[in-house]
Amino acid sequence: MFLKAHLVTCLFLLHKMASATRSLLRAARPAGVRTQIRLASTSSKTLSLKERLAELIPAEIENVKATRAAHGKKAFGPVIVDQLYGGMRGLPALIWDGSVLDAEEGIRFRGKTIPECQALLPKAPGGSEPLPEGLFWLLVTGEIPTQEQVTALSKEWAARAALPEFVEEILDRCPPTLHPMSQFSLAVTALNHNSAFAKAYQEGVNKKEYWGPVFEDCMDLIAKLPNIAGRIYRNVFAQQAQGKLPAIDANKDYSANLSTLLGFGENPAFVELMRLYITIHSDHEGGNVSAHTGKLVGSALSDPFLSYAAALNGLAGPLHGLANQEVLIWLKKMQSKLGEEPTDEAVKEYIWSTLKSGQVVPGYGHAVLRKTDPRYTAQREFALKHLPDDKMFKLVGQIYHLVPDILLEAGKAKNPWPNVDAHSGVLLTHYGMDQMQFYTVLFGVSRAFGVAAQLIWDRALGAPLERPKSYSTAAIQKIFKDKS
Ligand SMILES: CC(C)(COP(=O)(O)OP(=O)(O)OC[C@H]1O[C@@H](n2cnc3c(N)ncnc32)[C@H](O)[C@@H]1OP(=O)(O)O)[C@@H](O)C(=O)NCCC(=O)NCCS
Questions:
Q1: Residue from 421, 423, 430, 458 carrying the catalytic annotation
Q2: Ligand 1 centre and the CA of 80: distance in Å?
Q3: From which residue to which does the signal peptide run (predicted)?
Q4: Who is most buried in 12, 83, 159, 459, counting CB within 10 A?
Q5: Which of 122, 136, 162 is nearest to 48 (CA)?
Q6: By residue range, what is the domain housing residue 368?
Q7: Ligand 1 mutation pick, 364, 370, 379, 421, max ligand atoms within 8 A of CB
Q8: Would 105 be classed as within a structural domain?
């Protein structure tokens, strides 16, 4: 009797969830993309990303409710005053589902390490690096997609890739002296002109349906980044090719199209590098400057273009994404001073002179990591396979053996080991992309994947406006005045 009643309740709940899913999907899918998504799912005989997401949302809403009901009032560790002054290091303050960073082990995307992603995610025909399309699917759903689902995503992004003419004009009018990251941020901000979410909000969309137009904007954002990056690269560094970009090929994957737009599409090793590069740079949990900025601005219900443009402005800082540019400048200066194959002693002296002049050693240290960044290791393995004899790669290896001891001896850095930026520029330079001012743009293309995945979930789960509490030094002194 009890079992029967239970079964009826379960069936009723399942039915409710299925119909909620269907109506969520109906409401969230603007007419313009309906045909395209159906085509993607029927041609692959599997669900599109949006359809799968719509299935997952009701259960995740319940999951969050249950977590809050069970643990919502529990303390999550003490907060000490130093954390307020110390850039909030270690302060548990955010929910970020796509990835979690362990200080010793490094990043896991939805629970999977970089080597696991390399093994499990679908590859391009003949390729051995994971397709970033698959990584995006994983970040959004927590699931490994099929080859067909990934191909459908490549096609969908290709179909959405074109830029509005006025955005092309904005880029073409930028002086080549304007930093590529500033141009990037301008263009992404301007995409807000066609935001599906901003439009839906003006039209009074129900908050339960926010995620649908946010999903559309995020897909558009990711899809349009190769055209923005390609245009900036050609305008700034190949001025004779200004404004002339090859067309996106709907039969190629995202990284192949990006490589073509940059002018490197004929080199299969560069295309493979882009697949690996985008995958490993996509997400690094929620507290880093770019990810947190994107989430924060999104919490004000600014659309994904405005949110991601803000994230890009944070990524453009030398302690964050610009460090890849800084590493190359530092390495080139070292080579011009010491020659291409310097001795250990000369390199050590150079590292000490950097520290003594009050500068950081770029590419080393991390706010969370306490071991060698597995993103560094993945790039090193790529280099060992594709460019083992490259002189600058060898120099990077030599530096790896020298910097940690020096940083430890200097006694300040909590983490003396290399991060992702210590390696990326060397690989790009090897293939002829030696314009280091551009490197952070590629980081920005990649980081959109992680920020977009979280923006979608934040709106699906009704994440509130962020508003932490701040204190003045006088207020802190007053609070502790009589407590010694
Ligand atoms: C990433 C970074 C900003 C983390 O900062 P953090 O969390 O404050 O790091 P720490 O707690 O270890 O910093 C403690 C001290 O060591 C110094 N330090 C950290 N990394 C250093 C490095 N690579 N070279 C020299 N000094 C370093 C810091 O500047 C700080 O000095 P201060 O007390 O005089 O202000 C820092 O390691 C850094 O500047 N690295 C170089 C830039 C870089 O590679 N950025 C990319 C990160 S992915």
A1: 421
A2: 21
A3: 1-20
A4: 459
A5: 136
A6: 323-430
A7: 364
A8: no
Give the count of beta carbons closer than 10 Å to the beta carbon of residue 435.
17
What average pLDDT is seen over the chain? 91
Q: Which tokens go with 465?
A: 């406006």
Question: Which residues partner with 130 through β-bridges?
Answer: 123
Q: How confident is the model at residue 96 (pLDDT cuts 50, 70, 90)?
A: very high
DSSP-derived letter for residue 107 is: E
Active site residue 320: yes
Ligand 1 atom with the shortest distance to the CA of 420: 48
Tell me if 424 sits within 8 A of 376, measured CB to CB.
Answer: no
Q: What is the mean pLDDT of residues 281-305?
A: 98
Residue 425 lies in a domain: yes
CATH number at residue 364: 1.10.230.10
What is the whole-number distance in angstroms between the Cα of residue 363 and the centre of ligand 1? 9
Contacts of 41 (CB under 8 A, 6+ apart): 47, 48, 51, 152
- For 449-476, how does the pLDDT look when each residue is reduced to its tens digit (9 = 90+)? 999 999 999 999 999 999 999 999 999 9
Quick one: tokens of 451? 């920020």
Residue of 327, 360, 443 best suited for mutating to test ligand 1, as the one with most atoms within 8 Å of CB: 360
Q: Region 149-171: what's the mean pLDDT?
A: 98
Taking CA atoms, 201 is separated from 197, 217, 296, in Å, by 6, 13, 18
Q: 13-37 burial by CB neighbour count: b if 16+ within 10 A, else e?
A: eeeeeeeebeebbebbbeeebeeeb
Distance from residue 398's CA to the centre of ligand 1 (Å): 21
Q: What is the pLDDT of residues 123-136, one digit of tens each?
A: 999 999 999 999 99
The answer to whether residue 421 is catalytic is yes
DSSP state of 113: -
Residue 156 lies in a domain: no
- Contact by Cβ (8 Å): 184, 315: no
Q: Which residue has the tokens 């924060």?
A: 296
Residue 180, domain member (yes or no): no
Residues with CB under 6 A from ligand 1: 319, 323, 355, 360-367, 412-415, 419-421
Distance CA 196, CA 33 (A): 11
Report which protein residue has its CA nearest ligand 1's atom 9.
367
Please provide residue 378's backbone torsions phi and psi, each rounded to the nearest 5 degrees: -60, -40
Establish how many alpha carbons lie within 13 A of residue 368's alpha carbon, considering only the half-sphere containing its beta carbon: 20
Under 8 Å between Cβ of 192 and 305: yes
What amino acid occupies position 86?
G
Phi and psi of 371, rounded to 5°? -135, 175
How many domains, the chain?
1
> β-strand 99-102 against 106-109: which pairing, if any?
antiparallel
CA-closest candidate to residue 396, choices 428, 357, 371:
428
* Amino acid at the residue 438: F
Using CA atoms, how far apart are residues 112 and 374, in angstroms rounded to an integer? 12
